[in-house]
Design brief:
Largest sheet: 8 strands, mixed, barrel
Helix content: 55-70%
Strand content: 15-25%
Number of strands: 16
Strand order of the largest sheet: 8-9-11-12-13-14-15-16
Length: about 625
């Protein structure tokens, strides 16, 4: 359709240009005809008639002694020259060819030439000679007069005039056509310009204002609201879990959802407000002409409430929810960039796991948190480039014991970061920081490199059969993981049967079918996989049924004070029995009391780890444990 419109514009422009050129040529031809008629025909014949009439009159005047001979000869010479110019001049070529003008003028010329001597010898008062001459030239005076009249009123002259009039008529039609074409072209171009202007400021999917118009409107609001007691607010709105909806239900249904959200926003905003779609599932509302700051928060909650609805796709109802971040002019900034930054930080806080309202107003501590995250990110990038004894990033090792006889069976490598400014950084924050900024694989590489470094720099040789557990980030768990792990292990001393990869429930349940394929590929290489923090999620039993896990690690929430809670003992005992029937080992995390350890031992839990026996140890403190412990075969 776009190509057809463009071709039509080109065609209109070509017609306009062709008609313009043709009109111009026709105009020049008409002007030339008129000019030739006026300048060459009328003027030339009129001059010839005038000179002939003067000569004819002077003959009579000389015969009556009214003029002298010189005056007669002067008029004779002028007529002679005029005849010569008429007969040989290029400008009179057209005129000579009409009305037998050349023959008549040639005869006049010959007669004048034949009588040259008589005219020269004519004496004053010679009536006879004068009368003969006037009789000879009188017919030519009449003929020239006739030529003049025919040039203006004859058939050819009339035809020429009619040609001029016809040409002017054609020119009028052409000009009318040009006007119509030009008007059509202008209207079309104006419509196209309006369409392009709409596309330049409108989101094509939802019909809302796009980012360009939003930026202009935000700038205008900042400029127009610099008066005292003038307020406006910026709301950034983001759909929760839209990526999952888009992935599982398809992009077409995702687009329908975005259109539904846009429709609801249009229905609930005030007339003076602007609603825009920035990109993806990110929307924005500029709330103009606010009475006070609290009104902005009330409107933001109202918008969010209007966007909580059930979206039906193929008979399935999907609960839609949103998060909203709010910043206020001039409280949180005077420039658009400042307001956007403040609203973005508030939106990030609203989307965080700790938020219960899903609507957040910017606070100064949010900026402090953002500065902290930025600093940590830059420092993390630097720390991932090397691993040695001076590195801030380190691995500490939590011993793993067999529950039956408390023999050391393995160690879990735990990430530790003692930051010089922010002190100890929690491992969860480190993993989240890496995942959110594309550093997941880089962190995975660092974990194996650091493990290799600690192995070679340990004071005591690690037992050949020691089991080493590593936690993986979510981005590393992809179909390329088995091949990548295989390449890593070929460069390291750790053997596949020693490695245990720990994954949390959220990572494994993103795509159960894909997860099953990855797990099988890892297990085919002899690598074991552990489900970490079992019992903290809502789909744990589904995970056990769908995925072939080697090891299940009971979350500390199920283990702590286990000996004092009979109902919890029954629950844990059932889980352990179920895992054993599924050929899975069970590890209890967070064991901190001897009573809990004995209770787990009675339930035939396979292994335990926790502060009861040891805290996570740096490599230097791990050496005594490795030296005094005899490890059973794995």
């Amino acid at each position: 359709m776009k190509r057809i419109r463009l071709l039509f514009l080109y065609l209109l422009a070509a017609v306009f240009l062709t008609a313009s050129v043709f009109s111009m040529v026709n105009h020049f031809r008409t002007a030339r005809l008129v000019s030739n008629h006026i300048q060459y025909s009328a003027w030339s014949l009129a001059q010839l008639e005038l000179e002939l009439q003067k000569f004819y009159t002077n003959i009579a005047l000389y015969g009556a002694n009214a003029i002298d001979h010189n005056q007669l000869m002067f008029s004779y010479d002028l007529l002679w020259n005029r005849l010569n110019v008429f007969l040989v001049g290029k400008e009179n070529r057209t005129l000579r060819a009409r009305f037998n003008a050349e023959i008549k003028i040639r005869n006049l010329y010959n007669t004048l030439q034949d009588n040259e001597q008589r005219i020269t010898d004519l004496t004053a008062g010679d009536k006879a000679q004068q009368q003969q001459l006037t009789q000879q030239f009188y017919p030519y005076v009449q003929q020239v007069r006739e030529l003049v009249m025919l040039n203006f009123t004859g058939k050819e002259s009339t035809k020429m005039y009619e040609g001029v009039l016809e040409s002017q008529k054609h020119l009028a039609w052409l000009l009318a056509g040009l006007f119509a074409v030009g008007l059509t072209l202008i209207i079309t171009l104006l419509r196209q310009a309006r369409r392009f202007n709409r596309l330049a400021h409108q989101d094509p999917l939802t019909g809302l204002a796009n980012r360009g118009l939003f930026n202009d409107s935000l700038e205008a609001s900042c400029t127009n609201s610099r008066q005292p007691d003038s307020h406006f607010a910026l709301c950034l709105i983001k759909l929760n879990h839209f990526k999952e909806i888009n992935h599982y239900l398809g992009h077409r249904q995702g687009d329908e959802l975005l259109q539904k959200v846009a429709q609801r926003l249009r229905e609930h905003v005030r007339r003076q407000d602007l609603v825009a779609r920035l990109d993806g599932d990110n929307f924005a509302v500029i709330l103009n002409n606010l009475q006070n700051d609290s009104e902005a928060l009330d409107l933001a909650r109202y918008f969010r409430q209007s966007l909580v609805f059930d979206f039906f796709i193929k008979g399935r109802a999907t609960q839609i929810d949103t998060s909203v971040g709010v910043s206020i002019f001039p409280l949180h900034g005077l420039q658009p960039a400042e307001l956007l930054q403040a609203a973005s930080l508030a939106l990030y806080q609203a989307k965080s796991a700790g938020s219960t309202t899903r609507v957040e107003l910017f606070r100064s501590e949010m900026a402090e948190h953002q500065n902290r995250q930025t600093t940590l990110l830059l420092d993390l990038k630097r720390q991932l480039q090397f691993c040695d004894a001076t590195s801030e990033l380190q691995l500490h090792y939590l011993p793993l014991y067999r529950a039956a006889d408390r023999q050391l069976t393995g160690i879990e490598a735990l990430l530790r970061w003692q930051h010089p400014h922010y002190d100890a950084i929690h491992p969860i924050e480190i993993f989240e920081l890496a995942e959110n900024h594309g550093l997941g694989m880089a962190l995975g590489n660092w974990l194996f490199e650091r493990l290799e470094y600690d192995y070679h720099h340990s004071e005591v040789r690690w037992p050949d059969d020691i089991k080493v557990a590593l936690n993986l980030s979510i981005s590393m768990f992809n179909p390329a993981l088995p091949s990548w792990i295989n390449q890593v292990l070929q460069r390291h001393v750790l053997r596949p049967r020693q490695l245990v990869l720990e994954l949390n429930e959220a990572t494994l349940t993103q795509d159960l079918q894909r997860s099953a394929g990855i797990l099988k590929a890892l297990q085919d290489q002899g690598i074991r996989v552990a489900l970490d923090n079992f019992g903290s999620g809502v789909s744990s039993l589904t995970t056990l049924k769908a995925l072939a896990i080697d090891i299940l690690k009971l979350d500390r929430s199920l283990v702590q004070q286990l000996s004092q809670q009979q109902r919890q003992q029954q629950f844990v005992d059932s889980i352990i029995a179920l895992c054993h029937r599924l050929q899975m080992q069970v590890v209890a995390e967070g064991v901190e009391s001897e009573e809990d350890a004995r209770c787990l031992q009675a339930m035939r839990c396979d292994e335990i780890q926790g502060f009861l026996h040891s805290l996570p140890l740096p490599t230097s403190e791990l050496a005594p444990y490795l030296q005094q412990s005899s490890l059973p075969a794995i």
